[in-house]
Design a protein that fits this description.
Structural class: alpha+beta
Order of helices and strands: HEEHHEEEEEEHH
Largest sheet: 4 strands, antiparallel
Strand content: 15-25%
Radius of gyration: 19 Å
Number of strands: 8
Number of helices: 5
Shape: globular
Distance between the termini: 19 Å
Helix content: 40-55%
Strand order of the largest sheet: 1-2-5-8
């Protein structure tokens, strides 16, 4: 249990500290070069990891409920795995996934109440609308209701880009960039945790999957 708590708290502290700094120091859409292949680029994501979203405001409620269910489900499984003496190859990466889910859940549930400005959904045009200026904490009534806040993303790795040859149907002449999505520490923790489990699945589940 101590390992789960330690991993979860470490990731949550780094995740929320980075988000709070970006949200209160960067303009929406602002980008700063750290290296040629790594930038801090502030975007707000109303949906899932790596910029995926769906369904407007209703989709946000649905996504928050899914995240809550995921967190509760992982807590239940932690109790089972600890009773059975599960390997660190399972416990540690699942703690990373757990922390990542909580990190993004905090944004969606509370950032709309905490900050004075943020990206909001406009039903009349069916689009998410950004804002000008730099957000402040507690300066006003908040930009959105409970569970309607947006996730703060800032990690951008444009490692390389090229134009597809013109003779390729459908995509010829268009630009391809790797890696285009902007993400955050919570997304990274979920991805890395899942990859670790996939790589070491035989050690994580020596007796096979058993739920």
């Amino acid at each position: 249990m101590k390992k789960i708590i330690a991993v979860t708290l470490l990731i949550l502290i780094i995740d929320q500290a980075s988000k709070l700094y970006i949200k209160t120091h960067f303009h929406l859409g602002e980008s700063v070069d750290v290296f040629s292949w790594f930038k801090l680029a502030f975007v707000e994501n109303p949906g899932m990891a790596y910029g995926l979203h769906f369904g407007g405001a209703i989709g946000k409620y649905a996504l928050s409920l899914v995240r809550i269910a995921l967190v509760i489900g992982i807590i239940v499984m932690f109790k089972k795995w600890l009773r059975e003496g599960a390997s660190n190859y399972l416990i540690i990466p699942m703690a990373m996934i757990f922390a990542g889910a909580i990190g993004n859940l905090i944004d969606g549930m509370f950032y709309g109440l905490l900050f004075d400005t943020g990206t909001v959904f406009e039903p009349s045009i069916g689009r998410w609308i950004g804002y000008d200026g730099i957000s402040k904490i507690g300066a006003g009534s908040g930009y959105a209701s409970f569970m309607n806040g947006c996730v703060v993303d800032m990690l951008y790795f444009p490692l390389f880009k090229f134009n597809w040859p013109s003779w390729i149907p459908g995509i010829g002449g268009t630009e391809f960039e790797f890696f285009r999505p902007v993400f955050n520490i919570a997304d990274s923790a979920i991805t890395v945790g899942a990859v670790i489990i996939l790589i070491f699945k035989k050690k994580a589940f020596p007796n096979g999957l058993n739920f």
